[in-house]
Amino acid sequence: MPTTSSSPAASRRSVLTAAAAAGGAALLPAGFITLAASPAHADDLLLSTDFSSGTTEGWAGRGAASVAVDPEQRLLITGRTATWNGAAIDITSHIEVGVRYQLKVYLRLPEGESATDLRTTVQRDVGGVSNYEGVKWNTAVTDAAWTEFSGTYSIAQAADKLQFYVESDSSLTPILLDAFTLTRIAEPEIQDLLPLKDFLADDFTFGCAVEPPEVVGKPAELLAKHFAQVTTGNQMKPESIQPTEGVFDFSRADQIVDFAEANGMKIWGHTLLWHNQTPAWWFLDENGEPLVESRAHQALLLQRLETHVKAIAAHYGDRVWAWDVVNEVVDPEQPDGLRHSRWYEVFGGPKYIEKAFKIARKAFPRKVKLFINDYNTEFPDKREAMFNLVQHLKCEGAPVDGIGHQAHVDYKRDPALLGESIDLFRELGVLQTITELDVSVSDHMEESLPATPPERLVAQGWYYKELFEVLRERADDLESVTMWGLYDAVSWLRTWPVSRPHEAPLFFDDRLQAKSAYWGVVDPTKLEPLPES
Questions:
Q1: What percent of the chain has pLDDT over 70?
Q2: Which domain of life, per UniProt (predicted)?
Q3: What's the chain's Rg over C-alpha atoms?
Q4: Residue 475 main-chain phi, psi, to 5 deg
Q5: Rounded to a whole number, what is the largest CA-CA distance in the chain?
Q6: Residues classed as catalytic
Q7: Which of 258, 248, 217, 266 is nearest to 433 (CA)?
Q8: Reduced to 3 states, what is the DSSP secondary structure of residue 477?
Q9: Which of 53, 128, 191, 469 has the fewest CB atoms within 10 Å around its CB?
Q10: Environment class of 228 (CB within 10 Å of its CB; exposed 0-12, middle 13-18, buried 19+)
Q11: Is 391 exposed, middle or buried (0-12, 13-18, 19+ CB in 10 A)?
């Protein structure tokens, strides 16, 4: 990462100047770009801008922002009046369905500007509808050094227009931009390994949560080889299915469902009711005012939930065998052990949870199983709060079929904790499943490293060995185990709660290759010795 005031592109300008001199973006020679369409063994640079031509090289202001090349041949973005104002470049002609790309750019602030969080995004336009897909999430930028913003991007269906752009989290500061590259990632062959789903077939169904880009191209090949069940990571959440009241969109969820059915995979639904990723209109009355605790507003909220669930049930029927009906409603730090969300506030308590299960039971075919899902259920306080809630729901006659343990854990957390929770919930006679498993390699939540320390990947392999021993010992109690993500580059942990380029929580790396994590489950004799602590 550049650390001086000079541009990160300076050392490459002599190579790119001739191509950029004609104006517009600097493209590689046509013959080289053509090579990218054939089987590739090295990454192919498709598009690059360094502003050595003195022009903006295809970049334009977004919103109220203006762009200009400064005397040091960097793009200066000014006049921003909203956080989404910035600089954008059209990448439509370079992006193919099912191909993975790296989008990289360097950002910094002009001298004297206070540090702020910036991010990079792609606007994907299809049929007059715009979608906004993060490439690199909020990352702190200063006026003292260039910061690299790099991320993987792919599309699952053709787009009318694709624009890569820079924006901010909250600040309206001017921004400096340089050394943008768009690179086609060379896809290796999917390794000829024992499929995880086959290795674990006698224990439980092995699944994976994915987004539409993972059901095309090489990621789709990896997914079908190793997994027997899919969860639609974000595409069945309330904001995706019903972004505007009465307007339902199943298109992106259907891409995943159709792929799963074509490959003989089971389907898990996530999620019907959640405090997060739910459009604001759910909690506003007909006048646009916030809902309050009243019978009228409770009835309105339940009517909206019933309409939502019935539409989903009518669309999917029993094609989706199980649903997370309510998600993350437990908070052991509250006196009653429950999250005091907008749902809770409108109902003045947890009655909505029971109502949600009854609405779902009435809407879906009887064979569809209904789950309550939450994270940190391996910790004793959360475990107790969840146990008390499920026990109460069962006593009230709520049709709760099972509990989902998310299992977002880290490589230092005792695997026995999750086993203890599974053992406890056996007492309630409910189904159990692991719904969102990943193993963080961060030493703390705010850690952000440029690359993954190799010794942590070894330690993670041994951790997966111990964890799956715990899970397989309890195979009779588990319906399925699902990973939250197919390969490291698409993991949510890369961007939460801060930018964490080093995160590598899954079985397969950025190049879709098996890691020590895979061997920890399938053949621990192939693991390197544990690093000394």
A1: 92
A2: Bacteria
A3: 24
A4: -55, -35
A5: 75
A6: 328, 374, 436
A7: 266
A8: helix
A9: 128
A10: buried
A11: middle
